[in-house]
Design goal:
Layout lengths: L1 H11 L24 H23 L1 H16 L2 H13 L5 H9 L5 H23 L4 H15 L25 H18 L4 H23 L4 H19 L1
Helix pairs in contact: 2-3, 2-7, 2-8, 3-6, 4-5, 4-6, 4-10, 6-10, 7-8, 7-9, 7-10, 8-9, 9-10
Length: about 250
């Protein structure tokens, strides 16, 4: 299990994970690591939340919230944000399914992708600032948001289809079992309850429902999911969780 965790941490972040910690795992075994997604989110959210706590006394809430958002982006290498932008560039292009998938592969940033990035990043800064003003325990809340986003994205994998013939998302999409899905969701729910006792479980439930609807809409539009849509689900899941706490 520890090797799976470090393999997923290496896969989903830019943290320097020694290769020997995940040694012996083949890429086709990565699907087993889905159950560690909530814990990867816990670590990344806790580190980004620590930046918020350090900056708040010196910079005030808005800049501390901006520091949290920037830290999370740096920790992940903007991996999920890139998926968010590509997904929205594709699905709002009003083209055929095949053309949408081609647009999502294009490295250039379009208008819809840029707008999606702006709205998500600004929403995070504003909501984190507001939650802090309302007296929430921010280290737990910020860690829980990362847990919720990385847990809910399993719904874009379980019993779903991969929209392309090949790609990194194909490691997970359509290959996650019902047991793995249940364990992942249970771990995410428990962590959210522990990290944000007042409303964490309810916010997690709202996140789950919204991402389920997002998965359904994408399947109708694209005929399945890709690695980009997984990244988009993680980013949107974080924002929905934070908004649900309000």
């Amino acid at each position: 299990m520890f090797r799976l965790f470090f393999a997923m941490l290496q896969f989903m972040s830019r943290l320097p994970v020694p290769g020997r910690w995940s040694q012996g795992l083949e890429v086709n075994q990565y699907v087993r690591g889905i159950v560690t997604f909530p814990f990867v989110g816990l670590l990344l959210g806790a580190l980004a939340g620590l930046v918020f706590i350090i900056l708040q006394p010196w910079c005030g809430l808005p800049l501390a919230a901006l520091g949290y958002v920037l830290a999370l982006a740096l920790l992940t290498g903007g991996f999920h944000l890139d998926g968010l932008a590509d997904t929205f560039d594709g699905i709002f292009s009003a083209r055929t399914r095949e053309r949408m998938l081609e647009i999502m592969r294009d490295s250039r940033l379009g208008t819809h992708g840029g707008l999606a990035l702006i709205f998500v990043l600004v929403a995070k800064v504003l909501v984190v600032s507001e939650l802090s003003l309302r007296g929430y325990s921010m280290p737990g809340v910020l860690a829980a948001a990362s847990v919720a986003g990385r847990t809910a994205c399993v719904m874009l994998m379980y019993r779903q289809q991969y929209a392309r013939e090949s790609g990194m998302g194909n490691l997970f999409i359509g290959k996650v079992s019902g047991t793995q899905t249940a364990i992942t969701l249970a771990c995410g729910a428990v962590l959210c309850l522990m990290l944000a006792p007042s409303a964490g479980l309810l916010a997690f439930a709202v996140t789950f429902i919204v991402i389920m609807a997002f998965a359904w809409a994408l399947r109708r539009t694209l005929g399945g999911h890709t690695g980009d849509t997984l990244g988009a689900a993680i980013e949107l899941g974080e924002v929905v969780f934070l908004l649900a706490l309000l």
